[in-house]
Amino acid sequence: APMEHSKRHLVLIGMMGTGKTTIGQAIAAQVPLPWKDTDQALVAKWGCSIADFFALYGEERFREEETQMLEACLAEPSLLLTTGGGIVLREQNRQLLAERAFVVHLDAEPEEIIRRLTQTNEERPLLKGDLRQRVYDIYEARRELYRFADVRVDTTGKSIDEMATAIVRAWQ
Ligand code: S3P
Predict the structure, then answer these.
(1) Residues 65, 52: contact at Cβ < 8 Å?
(2) Taking the mean position of all CA atoms in its chain, how far away is CA 81?
(3) Which residues are annotated as a binding site for Mg(2+)?
């Protein structure tokens, strides 16, 4: 059935390690929306990894690129969009998202995030050094910035499909 939505896009935000990609994949299997990911789209555009881009050009340039990519994605017809954990750092991004998307904040306690991030070997430039300390610092610095979301989902102890179904229901 066609969905009527003033806030057309369905967007997942949240810290690294909260499951945006995993849950995004499960949602993509349930709804007829094209799925895009801001990080994946940037990697495809540059032809280099996020880690390499950070090393070559620094975080500020990355944030510029990220904002441009977000704007481009939100200008498209309805998308399922997963985002980098830092998408909320810029007020401009939070405003755009609040206006144009149904925003879902995926949340987990720092200890759970640390556990999950320790299990992946994906290179994350912001976690270089003391992973535990970095996660706690970033969690504290951003917790308020994720609050504008339409819904918050605690991702601890739930199955991926259960969360995907709940999110789709909230969005519809
Ligand atoms: C970042 C999160 C990463 C990626 C970049 C910066 C952040 O995405 O955009 O390394 O600032 O939290 P994930 O949240 O998919 O790991």
Answers:
(1) no
(2) 8
(3) 21
Token pair, residue 29, equals 């299997």
Q: Separation of 162 CA from ligand 1 center, angstroms?
A: 24
Burial classification of residue 70, based on how many CB atoms lie within 10 Å of its CB (0-12 exposed, 13-18 middle, 19 or more buried): buried
The residue whose C-alpha atom lies closest to atom 9 belonging to ligand 1 is: 84
Dist. CA 38 → ligand 1 center (Å):
10
Q: What is the ipTM of this complex?
A: 0.98
Kindly report, residue by residue over 65-97, the tens digit of the pLDDT: 999 999 999 999 999 999 999 999 999 999 999
Q: Which residue type occupies 138? A: I
Nearest to 62 by CA among 38, 79, 91, 82: 38
Binding-site residues for ATP, in ranges, read 17-22, 124
**Percent composition of the chain: helix, strand, coil (DSSP 3-state, to 5):** 60, 15, 30
Residue spans per domain, the chain: 9-171
CB of 48 closer than 8 Å to CB of 120: no
What architecture (CATH level 2) is domain 9-171? 3-Layer(aba) Sandwich (3.40)
Whether residue 1 has pLDDT greater than 90: no
Q: pTM to 2 decimals?
A: 0.95
8 Å CB contact between 41 and 116: no
